[in-house]
Amino acid sequence: RAIDASPAQEKVIAEALREAQAEVLPLREELHRTREDVAKAMASPVLDEDTLAALMVGSDDAISHAKKTLAGALAKVHAALEPAQRERLGQIISRGARDAFGGPYRM
């Protein structure tokens, strides 16, 4: 709506976002587990640096996967839009979601 997307464009955008969400949301749980493991490591009497390093590698892998997934979704959306729509979307993104949807209290 904010970028005047056609129904076909809306379909591409919605599908790209659904695919990205399906890939990224499970990573949140993995990152929460990592946070819990880091908390346990920090609370222990002796910090096991090898364990801590291994936890960080797991987080790096999850973040890397999320970045690749989101980049793919953004590429699909970009390809579906006309130049003026891309410009408008870029403006919306630069202002943040609150401005794009009318602020925090808009229904």
Global mean pLDDT: 87
The parts where pLDDT drops under 50 for at least 5 residues are none
Number of strands: 0
Q: Please bin the fraction of helical residues.
A: over 70%
How would you sum up the global shape?
elongated
Number of helices: 4
**How far apart are the first and last residues' alpha carbons, in Å?**
15 Å
The ordered string of helix (H) and strand (E) elements is: HHHH
| Percentage of residues in DSSP E strands | under 5%
Structural class: mainly alpha
Oligomeric form? single chain
Major sheet attributes: none
What's the Cα radius of gyration? Answer: 19 Å
Describe the structure.
- The protein has 107 residues and is mainly alpha-helical.
- Helices cover 80% and strands 0% of the residues.
- The chain contains 4 helices and no strands.
- Helix 1 packs antiparallel against helix 2.
- The longest helix has 37 residues.
- The chain is elongated and about 60 Å long.
- The protein starts with 6 loop residues before the first helix and ends in a 7-residue tail after the last helix.
Brief summary:
The protein has 107 residues and is an all-alpha fold. The protein has helices spanning 7-43, 49-80, 83-95, 97-100.
Give a topology summary:
Elements lengths: L6 H37 L5 H32 L2 H13 L1 H4 L7
Helix pairs in contact: 1-2
Label this structure with key terms.
0% strand; single chain; mainly alpha; elongated; 107 residues
